[in-house]
Design goal:
Order of helices and strands: HEHHEEEHEEHEEEEH
Number of helices: 6
Shape: globular
Number of strands: 10
Structural class: alpha+beta
Helix content: 10-25%
Radius of gyration: 17 Å
Strand order of the largest sheet: 3-4-9-6-8-7
Length: 183
């Protein structure tokens, strides 16, 4: 009962995840627009991981102390997935469509901010994450691993092509399924 009623910190309800082949991945923006034209589709997002599933492991450090390298879990995502999964902002803003690719931005959870010993506000600060990266937002901790474990530090990094497409449906998900959306 405890685990069934545990608030995850995000909303996976009415979300379908589809594995994207290379053709779908390369034409994601056009596919996203087509999916958003379906009345039952509320939001579309993309990434490399299943939110609530496995993560990638990376290293992270402060710029002024690269020797103190920490392990951190990573989700590689595209614009829109944070809103789709209803992650809760603590500070800053989610990745934007028009953000220049030349600026390497990341989003950290509260556990990552604590692990690094950073004091709020942290948006705009740079840290060593695969080179210099700017913190664009902080999100509330959410369960992405075992719900019986303490929530570990997490970084969300931006990618250009997805391997998974996320679709959030409205209340009429069964009607959309009946229409057999063909990718």
């Amino acid at each position: 009962t405890y685990l069934q009623n545990l608030p995850l910190g995000y909303n996976p309800e009415k979300v379908v995840t589809i594995l994207a082949n290379s053709n779908i991945s390369k034409s994601y923006k056009a596919l996203r627009q087509e999916l958003l034209n379906i009345p039952e589709v509320k939001q579309v997002g993309a990434g490399h991981h299943i939110i609530g599933g496995g993560v990638s492991g990376q290293g992270i450090a402060l710029l002024d102390n690269k020797e103190a390298n920490y392990s951190i879990a990573e989700y590689r995502i595209m614009n829109g997935i944070c809103e789709l999964m209803e992650f809760q902002l603590v500070e800053g803003e989610f990745f934007k469509e028009n953000a220049p690719d030349s600026i390497r931005q990341i989003i950290l959870n509260e556990a990552a901010i604590e692990m690094l010993g950073l004091k709020k506000p942290v948006v705009g600060k740079h840290i060593n994450y695969k080179g210099s990266a700017e913190i664009s937002a902080v999100i509330k901790d959410f369960y992405y691993d075992q719900p019986t474990s303490k929530i570990r530090p997490l970084v969300l990094s931006r990618i250009n092509e997805p391997s998974r497409i996320y679709i959030r449906f409205d209340e009429n998900i069964s009607r959309a399924q009946a229409q057999e959306i063909a990718l």
